[in-house]
Amino acid sequence: MTNTTTTSIVSSGKGMTRREMLKGLGFGLGVTVLVSGCVMPAPSEDPRLPPPGTPDLSPFLDGVMAGDPAPDGALIWTRVEPTLGAADVAVLWTVAEDAAFTSIRAAGLVTATASEGHAVTVPVTGLDPHSWYYYRFEAADQSGTQVASRVGRLRTAPAAGSSPDRMRFAFASCQQINDSWFNAHAAAAAEPDLDFFMHLGDYVYVSDTNTLSREDYRQTYQRWRKQPLLRDLHAALPTVAMWDDGEFYNGISKTGPADRLTAAKQAWFEAFPVNDPGGLQAYRRFGWGDLVDLSMIDVRAYRDDPIENISYTDNGGAYDPSRSTLGAEQYEWFTQGLASSEAAWRIIGNPYNISPWKLVNLEFLRALRPDLPPNAGIYAPNEAWDDYLQERRDLLQFLIDQGVSDTIFASGHTHTALVSELRVDYDRPSTPVAAFDFCTGSMTADPDPRKSFLGDLPEDVAEEVLRAAERIVLNSNKPALRHINLIDQGYTVVDITPEETLVTIRNIDTTNPDAEAVDGARFRVRKGSQRIEVLPTPTHKGSFA
Questions:
Q1: What is the pLDDT of residues 294-332, one digit of tens each?
Q2: How deeply is 484 buried, as exposed, middle or buried, from its count of CB atoms within 10 A (0-12, 13-18, 19+)?
Q3: Nearest-angstrom CA–CA distance, 388 and 356
Q4: CA quadruple 252, 256, 262, 264: dihedral positive or negative?
Q5: What distance in Å separates the CA atoms of residue 298 and residue 282, rounded to the nearest whole number?
Q6: Which domains occur in the chain, in start order?
């Protein structure tokens, strides 16, 4: 699925001028470029971020993205609007050491074709590890004038075997287009020193009944990319993406319509800087020196159908050992990668929560019902690992048996912040912790639950009712669940060093365009620890165990 350049050049490492680049690509030196839609910062300005709301003029209406950092390069992406009647469009891409593009490190030509929706994903190689670069694209607009895109930033990973002292990233999921502002995106773009932004899916929300063809899915992504603050975020930070069900249809599983699943996958690969190794496979792994091994797992495309009955009181259904959310091939790839990892930490991009989420814990009935299965209860109907209880138990037991520690899941999908310590038997505090799960809230708001569910109550009273519900859920999920927030939106920042991982849930009022992000909750996991530490914050939101 990844487009490759038909012509490319890479500098020796010292950089080259634009004149040298054009000559190397075979252009005449009389080529001129009108740089519109691309604001070059003055040398005295901080070039880290494009100015907020920078327009992406035709032919680059969908903006630019970099993704999937590697030690020697990354992927860069854009989509072009073709000139009238043109089936294919020639696109020039350039990567430089500086935002003014005076020291060019790599460049090339790629063809944007109609068959790929005029989207291009370019693998850039030959760059230095652990470094930031700038990139842009150039193509002809409707008048035939050569126009440059805005400038984006790309990041390379540390070299294999190196020992970086830090990795810092933000992750999020679930961005609906509704009455919310995309101000969480602006806040994430402004976070200091992030290496990349991880999006865990529900990037778009398609129509369950009307989004059917590849072109339907393409148009959905194009609708979302009209959000200027979303484009700003992608230009500012590399993106590491994974799909959830919003990119397919509600409740997707491997048994869905084959043509529709293929169309959705093809459109997703067109829309993100992600390589497809073959077979439209989205799960993949990255290294960050000897500090982090990062696995992005696909919990949707290979899974068995979800469970409709949320009351788990017998050994069928979710306890069936043959049921899987990963599928046998991915499960083998995932577990063997975890077992062979020699990094200080293992981070897993996981589109839906692996932490248990019981509404009612039925363990109190065990004296009367000794036939109850492990962890009996009434679970939240949110389509997650709770539908695959035995696979989750097997995975966590594998981590314990193999001595795989310091493993953290970064999860999404719930629209609710959940923080949990993961045990094979999560109702038994005496059993060991195998891993940790930090599930982020949504980036934009659902209808405010204080108004949509409890609209007859004053807002402050409705909020207290929801906080009381949080405490009930905490009590039903002892000792696993450490934090829950049913109300607030935002994203999560993860700061990793060899000694500890700090996790900050950042909340923002998405109904107020002038709102700023605040620390809703902060946590620490020390290397080798069996416990999540809750750190104080004056602006805490939600409920804590």
A1: 999 999 999 999 998 899 999 889 999 999 999 999 999
A2: buried
A3: 11
A4: negative
A5: 7
A6: 7-155 (2.60.40.380), 178-201+283-544 (3.60.21.70)
Angle (deg, nearest 10), helices 328-340 and 389-401: 20
Residues 6 or more apart in contact with residue 458 via CB below 8 angstroms: none
Three-state secondary-structure class, residue 526: strand
Helix/strand/coil (H/E/C) assignment for every residue in 407-457: EEEEECCCCCEEEEEEECCCCCCCCCEEEEEEECCECCCCCCHHHHCCCCC
Q: 241, 264, 267: which is closest to 253 by C-alpha? A: 264
Omega before residue 59 within 30° of 0, cis = yes
479 prior amide bond cis, ω within 30: yes
Q: At what angle do helices 214-224 and 258-271 cross, to 10 degrees?
A: 40
Secondary structure in 3-state letters for 59-104: CCCCCEEEEEEECCEEEEEEECCCCCCCCEEEEEEEEECCCCCCCE
Residue labelled with tokens 């990963």 = 326
428-484 pLDDT, tens per residue? 999 999 999 999 999 998 877 777 666 678 888 889 999 999 999 999 999 999 999
Single pTM value for the model: 0.93
- The token pair at 110 is 């790629």
Q: Count the neighbouring beta carbons within 10 Å of the beta carbon of residue 130.
A: 16
Do 389 and 319 touch, CB atoms closer than 8 A?
A: yes
Residues 6+ apart with CB under 8 A from 290: 161, 162, 163, 342, 343, 344
